[in-house]
C-alpha cells in the first residue's frame, strides 16, 4: 500500500514546507524567511502606492489614507485643496483626527 520508501531527490530544490519529505525544524525557518519576504514586498508596494496616490476629488468624510498621503500634508497640495473646497462651499477635513492615538502632541504654553 505504501508504494515504497523514500527515494533520492535533488537537495537544491527549496520549498516552503521543507522539501519532498518535510522536516518540522525546517518549517519554522522557512516560515520566517517567507514571512520576511512577504513583509518586505508589502512594504515596497505600500510605499510606492502611498507616494503615487492622487485624488481627483476631495473626500466627503475622513478616510484612513489621509494619515499617510502626502496630498493632505504637503502645504502646496493643502492650499490647492482649500481653494477648491472654498469654491465648492465645503470645509477642510483634518488629516489626523483628534481621536488618533499616535498624533504628535503640540507643546502647550504655560
From TrEMBL:
Q: What PANTHER family would the database entry show? A: TRANSMEMBRANE PROTEIN
For this UniProt record, the keywords arranged alphabetically read as follows: Membrane, Transmembrane, Transmembrane helix
Task: Please give the name of this protein.
Answer: Uncharacterized protein
Which residue spans traverse the membrane? 27-48
- Keyword presence, Transmembrane: yes
Q: Is Transmembrane helix there in the keyword field? A: yes
